[in-house]
Each structure stands twice: as C-alpha cells, then as structure tokens.
Design goal:
The structure holds two protein chains of two kinds.
Chain A lengths: L2 E4 L9 E7 L6 E2 L4 E6 L4 E5 L4 E6 L6 E3 L3 E6 L5 H7 L16 H7 L1 H7 L7 H10 L17 H19 L20 H16 L2 E9 L1 H14 L9 H15 L5 E4 L2 E4 L5 E3 L1 E3 L2 E3 L2 E2 L7 H16 L13 E5 L18 E5 L3 E7 L2 E15 L5 H16 L7
Parallel strand pairs in A: 12-16, 16-17
Antiparallel strand pairs in A: 1-8, 2-4, 2-7, 3-6, 4-5, 6-8, 9-19, 10-11, 12-15, 13-14, 17-19, 18-19
Helix pairs in contact in A: 4-5, 8-9, 8-10
Chain B lengths: L1 E5 H15 L3 E5 L27 H5 L4 E3 L4 H13 L3 E6 L9 H8 L2 H4 L9 E6 L14 H5 L5 E3 L4 H12 L5 E6 L6 E5 L11 E4 L4 E5 L3 H14 L4 E5 L2 E3 L3 H11 L2 E5 L7 H12 L9 E4 L9 H7 L3 H12 L1 H4 L3
Parallel strand pairs in B: 2-3, 2-4, 4-5, 5-7, 6-7, 10-11, 10-13, 13-14
Antiparallel strand pairs in B: 1-8, 6-12, 9-11
Helix pairs in contact in B: 1-7, 3-4, 8-12, 9-10
Classes of the chains: A alpha+beta, B alpha/beta.
C-alpha cells in the first residue's frame, strides 16, 4: 500500500506551501524518518520525512509547485508498485496471486502487524489538542514523551517534539555547502536555505511590494532612565521581572497603537484589516538570523507581564524553542539596534504589517531648555510605515504619541 | 460622565431612568415600596424591598406605578405577565429566586410561551428582578442560585450581572427588551461600588467580557464567581501561568464564540459557578465546549462549583461549600499534572 507524503500545515495562517527541493528522486529507496522533500511556507522552510520505509514511487508536485495543505506531494510504496496499480488492486485482492511481485508481500504484513501490537500496548494517553497538532505536523505520537497527568501527551509535548524535529534537518543541511562554481572563488559559497531563505524571501518581498518610508524622531529619555532604574529596583522580586528600557518602549508603542489604530493593521491582498487587540512582535537576533516572537494580546497585559513575556520569548528564541504559533499573528513589530551603537536606521516592515518601530542607541546630548544647555539622554526612534495603508500625518502622530508616552514614563505603569 | 455607585444604587438608578423614559414601566412586588395602607406611610416608601434596593422610587412615581402586593407570588407574577402581554413594561420583583416554585407556571408556561404560541402576535416585555447568591448566611431557602433553571427554558432571557456598571446597562436592556428577562441580583454584591454611566445606556445581551487576557487557561466565572476566578488568575500568574478570565454576563443568550475562541487559544477550561453542579450553567458550558472545541482541548474541562447539596446555614460550612481560588488552582494542577504545575 502506497503512503502519501502530504503538504503539512505549519502555521495558523498557512493554506499552501511550495516544493523547494526533492532530496530523493523517483525510484530511490527511503528509510522511515529520512528526509524526502524540502518545502516552504511564507514563514519557514522544512524537510519532510518519509512516513514509512519503501521506495519513492511517484512525485506529484515538482519543484516550485504551490500545493494546498493536505494534498499529496508524492507516494512511498513497495518497489515496483505504482500509485495506480495499488488503487486498481484494492477492489480485487484475489488478483494479487497472479502478480508475481515478491515485494507486495511485506506490504499487507506491515499493515496488519500494528493491529495486534496495538492491542497489547498500554493505551497512549493523548489530549485532543495534542492529537490534532500531531496530525497537522505529521508527528508519530509513539515517539513523544507525555508530561501531563498519568503521562498524557499534551499540546506542549507535541510542540516540543516538533521543534526538535525541525532543528535536526536544519543542522544536518548546514555543513553541506554547494561546491564553489569555479576555482576563482575564494570565499565559501553556501546555498540559501532554511531560516536564511525565509528571511531573504520575506525582506525582499517587503521592499518590493509595499510603499515604505521611514520617519525619525528623537526622544528625551532622561526621566525614563531614572524611572526605569527605580521601577526595576522596586519590582525586582525575582529574576522573572527585570524591567528594561525595551519593556517601556514596548508598552509605549502598545499604548500609542491603541490610540492610533490605523498603525495596528495588516495589509493583505486588497484588504486592510485593523485590529483592536495589539499582538506585538519583538525582533530577536540569533546567530543564524532573526525571529520575531509575538506577545499576544499585549494591550491587555501589564508592563510587568510584557517584560516577563519578552524575556521568556527571547530566551526561547535563542534556544530554538519557539513554535510556529508563537511566531505568527503579530500586528506591529519593534526592532532594536541599540546595543550596536546605531542611531537612526530604516527598519524593513514585517509583512503583512504596516509599521515597524526601530530603536537606536541612547546617547547623551546637549539640549537647550530656554537659553540654558543641559545634558540629556536622547534616544533615536525610526518608524517605517507602509504608505499604501497609512499616510504621513497619522504615522507622524503615532510616532509623536510614542515619544510623549516615553517622556512621561509614569503613565506607562498606570 | 461616570459616577461611583453601589450595585444596589445602580439598580435603583436604572429603574428610575426607565420609569422616567417610558410611562409604561411599572414596578410590582412584595414591599417594593412598603407601608401601603399604613396611614402615616401612605405617600412614602417605608422599606423599598427586603434590601432597600427600590427605596425612594415610590416618592417619585407614586403608588399607581410602584405597586405593593400581598405575599402571593403566583398572584402578582400572573398580574405582571398579563400587564406585559397587554401593553405595559412591568418590572416584577421576586424577592428571592428561591421562591420561584410559587409562581413558576406564570413564568415558564405563560410568559415564556405567549410569543411563540400566538405566532409572534403577542409579546411579553416583562423583567423579573430576583435575588440569588450564597455567602450571606441566609440558609438553604434563601441562598440558591437558580439561573440554570431559567436558562433551561426557551423564551426567557437570563442575565447575571457581576458589577454595578453591567447591572445598570443590562437591567435597562432587560426592561426595554420585548421578551421576558430574569435579572439576577447577587445579594452579596449590593454594597459593591464602581463607576456607572449617568442617564440611559444599555449593554447588549449575549456579549461576554474578557476581564483578563491569558494564554494558558480559560476561566469562565458566573456572576460574582468572576472575582474568585480573577483571584485565582493572580495567584496562577505568580506561578507563571496566565489565565484568561471571562464574564459571560448573560446565560441566555450565551456568548459561545468568546468562550470557544478563548479555549481554542488556551486549550484548557475551568468554569466557576456557585450553583449546584448537575444540569447547571457550568455543565452546559462544559458540554458546548466539549462539542465545539474538542480538538483544541489539552486537558479535561473542570467545573469548580458547589457540591450537589443544599447551601448550609452554618457559616464555616458555607465557606467550605463555595468555590475558592484554591479550589480553582487545585483543579488546574490536576489538569496539567504535577510535573508541569510544579516545574514552573
């Protein structure tokens, strides 16, 4: 019996995926768990493993084909088997005796084998949500360790297994650089795959398909810094909450988004959808690229829980522990180059959002108060927005609100 | 403009606003004014109901519109249903919801059925205000929360406001709704104060309020149990679990979407209800979610309710009887297992 390799659903918004590369060709034999085909969604690239041992008997989707989720990409079956013959033989099983293909024998055996085995094994405890996720992610529940009550496999367990699985092929593919095209080349050539490819496609797409421009302003954060130090001392009950300037900037942006809802939108196709709830993306740099974990419903959270979530998400991002759900659905993004001495820059919008706020390095500057010069801590902010969705004045008004929020920091904790 | 008002004052205010707005609105019940036929109390309210909620209303609107009745629930409830069916908008006060047995036919078989049985030609714009809730040491016959009994019956709307603001908006919606509505007033909330809008405003039925956002657990708190849920959520947050707390505000109609969408996000549901657990609102919500969000559940649905027993009179026993934040946290630890619960 041939088994389908189907296009999996890798994120909430995913409806179709693209075949990037067939790692096995038609007729190749494959082991269970071996990578067969590499596919990509708009967020992530992933290698699909063979669900069974056998031969890749047919390929339905070629490289660059866009396939809806749940549709077959190819089939794995016994040597000599074809997808059609399997279908034809199904209603007339007695024909099997006439077909002198030895390899057909193990197929029914393999099919019937798990049945009695299942009866003997203790029942696997799996939550409905975990079962659903496992099906979507094509994960064998027998390989997942349950941490719930009485060893029940929970959604988090499946997500953890999925992350582990996703990381393995990525690492395996890294030390396989494409050979340099000629002896002229001195550098190391490396095929763009995985996270790099996802970033590459998304950033290119962002700049090619939107009308983005950047507004810049400087914020006096002298009081914010003093306030943050005090707040940090006052609230540092444990390691979980350690208020940083970034947390305050996040909160200031969230509050400003509630006032200027147009900035809290996504532009998809010919539709602009504006949200009441703020799902805040926070860009986190990694060695191999960057990810944007999302603080869901950030507008309903206090400064301390936002702080805690940002810390937790960055930690998880660095340990590659984030799942797809934690990486999708943001309505606005913040990115910071403050630790690198960068002032103003032009952040690139994270599509389909319509705005991104870039945070630069705080420096001490002379500022006039009347005729008097004072030393103040100044922070550059760069707001990139999509002019297709929002005009200059409302975008500037949003940025002004962010600035006001940061210059009156006590308001952020009220 | 908002003013600070108690739950009880918000009810009084809503009734006055409605009675000023529409002459068809009348108030009828036992001692809603008090002192009728007592010479020196003839033109003023003596009691304003057993908790003084309607005090002062008779002075403004007179005894033609604020009608004291004998202690005969079936009599005045029948009168209120008939008055509603023939053009008035009566607010009928059933002193304690525990007394519904004395006038259930008028509510369940008459008020709830007219619109349906007369092919939509009749309407019954009746509001029944009634008192529920345990925790007041009022014993088994004055402490029940019988909203599920009414939710069971089609043709009746059921409202369980948890705060003064909601109370006023929902009560005004009830009074100007063309169907019979039962509004539950939790007796332990009468003194609770919050900001309430001035003048006329309404809150639509069937729209739950998310009191607190979270990704790890959904807690639906019915009536005042929303506060028990919020306390539990605060304690869980200290352990690193963020609970989303939902106040459904009305049981009929019920905002299923808000609850289901939340469970789709969190994968876990606890319903907190101080009513009896069998055939209850909590059980009903559990069944709806089990049916419509099965594939999203990451743990069994838990109900934190009263036991299937009458409300005890003994104060220490009544305390044990009620849902508490600790009971909610215990339920959550059972749902996720010790390994996860104690790991954080």
């Amino acid at each position: 019996m041939a088994v389908e390799i189907i296009m999996p659903k890798m994120g909430m918004g995913m409806e179709e995926g693209t075949v990037v590369e067939w790692l096995k060709q038609k007729g190749d034999s494959v082991k269970k768990g071996e990578s067969v085909v590499s596919i990509s969604s708009d967020k992530i690239e992933k290698e699909l493993e063979a669900p069974e041992e056998g031969v890749l008997i047919d390929i339905e989707a070629d490289v660059d084909d866009v396939v809806p989720i749940g549709h077959p990409l190819g089939y794995i079956g016994a040597p000599g088997e074809t997808v059609n013959s399997e279908e034809a033989s199904a209603p007339a099983p007695e024909k099997k005796q006439d077909v002198p293909v030895a390899a057909e024998a193990p197929a029914p055996a393999a099919e019937s084998a798990p049945e009695p085995a299942k009866g003997e094994e203790p029942r696997l405890r799996v939550s409905p949500a975990a079962r659903r996720l496992a099906k979507i992610e094509n994960i064998d529940l027998a390989t997942v360790t349950g941490t719930g009550p009485m060893g029940r496999i929970t959604k988090a367990d499946v997500a953890a297994a999925q992350t582990k699985k996703a990381q393995q092929p990525a690492e395996a593919s890294k030390p396989a650089p494409t050979p340099a095209p000629s002896s002229l080349s001195i550098g190391t050539a490396k095929k763009v795959t995985g996270m790099r490819k996802v970033i590459s496609d998304r950033m290119f797409n962002s700049l090619q398909t939107t009308a983005q421009l950047t507004l810049q302003t400087t914020v006096d954060v002298t009081e914010l810094i003093a306030f943050q130090k005090k707040a940090r001392e006052a609230y540092q009950i444990n390691d979980e909450v350690r208020l940083t300037i970034t947390d305050f900037i996040a909160k200031a942006a969230i509050n400003a988004l509630l006032e200027h809802k147009a900035m809290n939108s996504i532009y998809e196709g010919d539709t602009i959808t504006t949200f009441d709830a703020v799902h805040l993306g926070v860009a986190v740099a990694l060695n191999e690229g960057l990810v944007v974990p999302v603080i869901q419903d950030a507008d309903k959270k206090s400064l301390s829980s936002i702080s805690r979530e940002i810390r937790k998400a960055s930690k998880q991002a660095r340990g590659s522990e984030l799942n797809q759900l934690q990486l999708s659905g943001s309505t606005f993004t913040i990115t910071s180059l403050g630790t690198y001495g960068v002032g103003f820059f032009t952040p690139v919008i994270n599509p389909p959002e319509v705005g991104i706020l870039g945070v630069g390095t705080i420096s001490e500057q002379p500022v006039y108060f009347g005729d008097e010069l004072k030393k103040r801590s100044m922070m550059p902010l760069s707001l990139t927005f999509d002019h297709r969705a929002v005009d200059g004045a409302p975008a500037a008004a949003f940025l002004a609100t962010v600035k006001q929020n940061l210059e009156a920091p006590f308001k952020l904790v009220l | 403009m908002a003013v600070k008002m108690s739950y009880s004052e918000a009810i009084n205010d809503a009734i006055r606003v409605a009675m000023r707005k529409d002459d068809d609105v009348i108030l009828i019940g036992e001692d809603v004014a008090g002192g009728a036929e007592v010479d020196h109390l003839q033109d003023q309210g003596a009691w304003g109901g057993v908790f003084g909620v309607t005090k002062g209303i008779v002075e403004e609107f007179g005894r033609d519109r604020v009608i004291d009745t004998p202690i005969a629930e079936s009599g005045y409830m029948g009168a209120a249903v008939s008055a509603a069916a023939t053009g008035l908008r009566p607010i009928s006060e059933l002193m304690f919801n525990d007394f519904i047995g004395s006038c259930l036919d008028e509510v369940m078989n008459q008020a709830a059925k007219f619109h349906y049985m007369f092919g939509g030609k009749a309407k019954v714009p009746l509001t029944i205000r009634t008192i529920d809730g345990a925790g007041f040491n009022a014993a088994a016959q004055h402490s029940q929360s019988l909203y599920a009994l009414f939710t069971h019956i089609p043709g009746i709307k059921v409202v369980i406001p948890s705060n003064p603001y909601d109370m006023k908006g929902l009560l005004l919606s009830a009074i100007f709704d063309d169907d019979p509505v039962v509004v539950f007033e939790d007796k332990t909330l009468y003194g609770m104060k919050s900001e309430v809008g001035e003048g006329f405003y309404t809150i639509p039925f069937g729209k739950a309020e998310i009191k607190r956002a979270g990704n790890d657990l959904t807690i639906v708190g019915l009536g005042k149990q929303v506060y028990t849920a919020l306390k539990a959520a605060d304690k869980l947050a200290k352990k690193g679990f963020e609970a989303e707390v939902i106040d459904p505000r009305t049981l009929s109609p019920l905002d299923e979407d808000t609850i289901i969408n939340s469970v789709k996000k969190t994968g876990r549901l606890i319903i907190v209800d101080e009513a009896y657990p069998r055939c209850s609102a909590a059980t009903d919500i559990a069944a709806i979610v089990g049916d419509k969000a099965f594939d999203y559940l990451d743990a069994p649905i838990k109900r934190v309710t009263a036991p299937h027993a009458p409300v005890p009179f003994s104060p220490p026993l009544e305390k044990l009887y009620m849902p508490t934040p600790e009971k909610i946290i215990d339920a959550f630890s059972v749902m996720v297992g010790d390994k996860v619960f104690s790991a954080v």
